[in-house]
Amino acid sequence: MAEFTNKNVIVTGGAKGIGRGLCLAFAREGARVLCADVDEPAGLQLEKDAADLAGLLRFQRADASQAADCEALVRRASQLWGGVDVVCNNVGIQPPDSYIPAHELREDQWDRILDVNLKSCFLMTKYCVPVMKQRGGGVIINTASVQGLQAAKGVAAYAASKGGLLSLTRQLALEYAADHIRVLAVNPGTIDTPLVDEFVAALGMDKAQVAEALAKIHPLGRIGRAADVAEVVLFLASDKASFMTGENVCVDGGMMAKGAWASS
Ligand SMILES: NC(=O)c1ccc[n+]([C@@H]2O[C@H](COP(=O)([O-])OP(=O)(O)OC[C@H]3O[C@@H](n4cnc5c(N)ncnc54)[C@H](O)[C@@H]3O)[C@@H](O)[C@H]2O)c1
Fold first, then answer.
1. Which residue, judged by its Cα, is nearest atom 24 of ligand 1?
2. CA atoms in the 13 A half-sphere facing the CB of 180
3. What is the pLDDT of residue 260?
């Protein structure tokens, strides 16, 4: 039997990039996966791409920064499959036009980044915890970032959101440990996804050149793939990690092992 057979998983921001990798990995391992995303065509395509996997994958359009959408996700998983076992708060945005010094950032840019990257985790927690308690436990995995650990120029709101996510991870872990709900985070380094493509395109840079430069700042000599993150998340969500909670794990090719990585 596959590792996540009969487990119900929600992945926010699941239609593309790392989220897509998470959805496919859980479905491959037998889970029933509800992929939540604002990109409906990409979500429906993912449903088709996952059709032959051991588990089941359904798409629901949802803006993870909105309470009603988060509540509807938990309700749908409960109606379809009887509850929620794993929530991956994976959604995150880093709009290229926010890559500016903090004092130039508009208030609405700050609010949107914090709402999507951080408030979404609070909202999903708010609605999934009662359901997880009823089932006797669960796992919440947050996709944070190395930028929540160390500073780099031009990412004030993004870094604050990811630092907040790491703090919230510890907070929730403590709050719900007695309910057998484990809460963990992963910190990806640079991962080859549409987010990075968008960034490179918006800044008018050449993707191959950027990829080469980025590969060099990761000690393992390459940037990551969505599957690299997904394999770690599968482990954290599994019973193999049953004595882990409140912790964050870097999936960054060794980047955080270096000192002063963001010196420029
Ligand atoms: N790619 C990287 O190098 C990298 C590095 C560190 C951390 N991360 C984090 O990993 C996560 C995934 O990043 P990615 O690179 O796969 O991004 P991506 O942009 O490639 O994919 C993100 C997905 O989220 C969806 N989305 C955006 N806003 C949404 C909303 N409000 N509600 C629901 N869905 C929404 C998008 O449609 C897209 O499908 C993010 O939290 C990001 O901050 C990425």
1. 13
2. 11
3. 57
Whether 176 sits among the annotated catalytic residues: the reply is: no
- Output the pTM of the full model: 0.97
Integer Rg of the chain from CA: 18
Model confidence pLDDT, tens digit, residues 17-55: 999 999 999 999 999 999 999 999 999 999 999 999 999
- Structural domains in the chain, CATH included, are 8-189+225-250 (3.40.50.720), 190-223 (no CATH)
For ligand 1, is residue 175 a contact (CB within 6 Å)?
A: no
202 pLDDT higher than 80: yes
- Residue 199 pLDDT: 86
Sign of CA dihedral 179, 56, 223, 198: negative
Q: Which atom of ligand 1 is nearest to the CA of 191?
A: 3
Work out the pLDDT band at 65, boundaries 50, 70, 90: very high
- As given in the structure block, the two tokens for residue 188 are 């990806």
The active-site residue, picked from 99, 127, 158, 176, is: 158
